[in-house]
Design goal:
CATH architecture of the largest domain: Alpha-Beta Complex
Largest sheet: 5 strands, antiparallel
Number of helices: 10
Strand content: 5-15%
CATH topology of the largest domain: Aminoglycoside 3'-phosphotransferase, Chain: A, domain 2
Number of strands: 10
Number of domains: 2
Radius of gyration: 19 Å
CATH class of the largest domain: Alpha Beta
Length: 266
């Protein structure tokens, strides 16, 4: 097996050794069996907080979540891995309205979650890009991206909605299966308005997944804080795609999205 395969101690700790021994596949550093997913941990505080939050969610007719699995001793992390149940379903990049409806229900369930202390101090790359988008932190961004970001920032202003826990990477992390509500996976937490999470979906849908822009942009602009959260989401993705490792692959789509957005609101 691949050298990055989780050690036996990890599989035994979560009680999944026999299942992963029978059949599994890896996607990057993530290992997937028939019923479980093992993911490496990059930030222990974020992972433990996320597991506690997802475990606390009540079942819903509007969305599913991948439930986190504790070790036999009651911990969330074993030898640098977390474990969660595997949700059934497939990605479908033509169901943005359903995805956004599930996201709204999911964020409604998170409204009362208290702000985690670890998040404001996190030095994770995407957390820093998020703070850059809201002018809470400076960040090095390629000059080609900064020119576009400057136009967006000139229009950015305040938002009325309160911050809350959100999933900030939903576009490629919702699964659809007939007869079941959409399944939300790979929870990526931020502390921002729920409309900002929806705005990131709009940016990613158009810039990365080639969705038709008109309806998605217009629908979001009709929301309370729609204009401002869309601007902030565009700045966020501009900060991400302005990094060297992402620029060549993503920036052309992002620039096309931004031109379409600015044509509407400048």
């Amino acid at each position: 097996m691949d050298l990055t395969f989780p050690p036996d101690e990890t599989l035994i700790a979560f009680g999944v050794r026999d299942e992963f021994a029978a059949e599994c596949e890896n996607r990057g550093q993530v290992w997937i069996s028939k019923n479980f997913v093992l993911k490496p941990v990059s930030d222990c505080m974020e992972s433990e907080w996320s597991c506690e939050l997802l475990e606390s969610l009540a079942s819903s007719p509007d969305f599913r979540v991948a439930g986190p699995i504790r070790t036999r001793s009651g911990e969330w992390i074993a030898n640098g891995y977390t474990c969660q149940s595997r949700l059934t379903g497939e990605h479908d990049m033509n169901r943005w309205s359903e995805l956004l409806s599930a996201a709204a229900a999911f964020h409604g369930a998170l409204e009362s979650v208290p702000e985690p202390k670890w998040m404001a101090q996190s030095q994770a790359f995407f957390q820093r890009c998020d703070r850059f988008a809201w002018e809470d932190e400076e960040l090095f961004v390629d000059q080609r991206s900064l020119r576009t970001i400057a136009r967006l920032r000139a229009l950015a202003g305040s938002v009325n909605a309160s911050n809350q826990a959100i999933h900030g990477d939903l576009a490629g992390n919702v699964l659809f299966e007939p007869g079941k509500p959409p399944g939300i996976i790979d929870f990526t937490p931020y502390w921002r308005p729920a409309a900002y999470a929806a705005a990131i979906v709009v940016v990613d849908a158009i810039a990365v997944h080639n969705a038709a822009p008109n309806r998605l942009i217009e629908d979001h602009l009709e929301l309370v804080d729609g204009r401002q959260t869309l601007l902030r989401a565009a700045i966020f993705r501009g900060a991400v795609y302005g990094q060297e490792q992402f620029y060549d692959y993503y920036f052309a789509g992002f620039r096309s999205f931004t031109e379409g957005l600015l044509d509407r609101i400048e």
